Structures are given as C-alpha cells and as structure tokens.
UniProtKB/TrEMBL annotation:
Gene3D superfamilies: 3.40.630.30. The keyword Acyltransferase applies. The keyword Cell membrane does not apply. It comes from the Bacteria. This is N-acetyltransferase domain-containing protein. Keywords: Acyltransferase, Transferase. InterPro entries: Acyl_CoA_acyltransferase, Bact_Acetyltransf, GNAT_dom. Residues 16-181 form the N-acetyltransferase domain. One of its GO terms (molecular function) is acyltransferase activity, transferring groups other than amino-acyl groups.
Length: 196
C-alpha cells in the first residue's frame, strides 16, 4: 500500500518597514498583538486591548516622525512588529543612538526566524540613518527574546530591579546596547573613543 504524505508548501516570511497600513494589515496586527499579550509577552500591555484600541495605536505610531514601524509577515499576513525610535530633534547629544522597542511575534507565527529578521532590518535601518548605537530593554522573564538579543551581539550593561509590574509582581528589566557601523565616516569604535 502506498502511503501518501502531504507535502506542506514552504512558509513565506518577510519583514518590511511600513509607512501606511491597509485595513487588513491593521486587523491582522491587532489580532497578533492581542495574541502576544495574552501569551504574556513583552509588549508593554498586560491586558488584551481589543481591535479598535490596537488599530488606533498603530495608526498613531505611523503619525510620529521619530517612530519607524517594522512589520513581520507570515504568508503575507502581518503577525508581529517592532519599533525603531529615533531621538527627538532637541536631543542632539544622543542623536547617535536609536532604540528598538515593542518587538513581538504572535505565538502562532514563532520559530520561523521573523524576530531575528525584524531586529536585523531595524539595525540596518538605524545604521543607514547614521545611528551608531542601538539600545533596548526587556523584562528578565522574556527568555527567548534575551537569547535572541545576546545571539545578535547585544551587550547587557545593566539591570533595573523595578522595571515592570506584571500580575501583581515586580519584574526586573535588562538593558542592552549594540554598536552599529554605518559604513561611512569613522568607525564607531574610533568615534566613541575620540574627543569629538
Ligand atoms: C522573542 C520573540 C519576538 C521571538 O520571535 P520568533 O519570531 O519566534 O523568533 P525567531 O524565530 O526569529 O527565533 C529567534 C531565536 O530564538 C530561538 N527560539 C525561538 N523560539 C524559541 C523557544 N520557544 N525557546 C527557545 N528559543 C527559541 C530560535 O531558535 C532563534 O534562535 P536562532 O536564530 O539562533 O536559531 C517572540 O518569542 C515574542 O514575541 N516573545 C514575546 C515578546 C517579547 O519577549 N519581546 C521582546 C521584548 S520587547
């Protein structure tokens, strides 16, 4: 007897920086975000917010000039996102640094390499914009995220003991930094060590 095995088509993964979101994208992102929140994951929200509030949130993000939104897609559907936050114009002294925040992938889309790709794309964008440093922070309970950031070369420089309150518990937060090479001008190492 011939046993036929169903061959699954390969999953399509991608990450893009977006400046606008379709209604379908907003609905997918709201679903992905609430799924990640319910699973307990990392995004600042602790309680699911519902579609209307999350769609307003993402529409608002797109309006802020210093915020760049990266969307992870699995088979074309938005399943996660991350924000690259640039310093405001009045913070000239820290203009060299950007922050990666709100990175998450819906539980049903994890393990496909989307988070790794999202962080890498955000780093490339930060470097292309001339930033030399990327900073991030994460609850100490987010083991997968911490393993990913360390694998990508982020350096743990400090721990905030009172970082977040989740489920009635105080949770510490880990602070990470990574230098970037914009590919032009002085190397970041020389710039950081230099006098100007
Ligand atoms: C952290 C998170 C974004 C990872 O998303 P993901 O798309 O599944 O991650 P990837 O598929 O890119 O995998 C990243 C790495 O984690 C590893 N990994 C994935 N799932 C894992 C698991 N359940 N346990 C251990 N390691 C795991 C992968 O092996 C991979 O390592 P590699 O690139 O060296 O092979 C996702 O788990 C998440 O959203 N968590 C909750 C939110 C959060 O913690 N955000 C970060 C702080 S803001």
């Amino acid at each position: 007897m011939n046993a036929s095995v169903a061959v699954q088509p390969p999953r399509q993964i991608g990450v893009e920086r977006v400046e606008r979101l379709s209604d379908a994208d907003l609905a997918d992102l709201a679903e992905a975000t609430d799924a990640a929140i319910i699973e307990g994951g990392g995004f600042g929200w602790v309680e699911p917010q519902g579609r209307a509030a999350l769609e307003r949130h993402f529409r608002g993000v797109l309006l802020v000039p210093e915020r760049e939104l990266f969307v992870a897609r699995l088979d074309g559907h938005a399943v996660g996102s991350a924000l690259l936050v640039r310093p405001p114009r009045n913070n000239e002294a820290q203009a060299f640094a950007a922050t990666l925040t709100h990175a998450y992938v819906a539980p049903y889309a994890r393990g496909f390499g989307l988070a790794r790709l999202m962080v890498t794309k955000a780093e490339e964008r930060a470097a292309a914009l001339g930033h030399r440093v990327i900073n991030l922070d994460v609850r100490e309970t987010q083991a997968t995220a911490i393993a990913l950031f360390q694998a990508l070369g982020y350096q743990h420089w400090g721990t905030h003991p009172f970082y977040a309150r989740v489920g009635g518990q105080t949770v510490a937060g880990l602070y990470y930094t990574k230098t970037l090479e914009p590919g032009r001008g002085r190397s970041t190492g020389a710039l950081i060590d230099g006098a100007d």
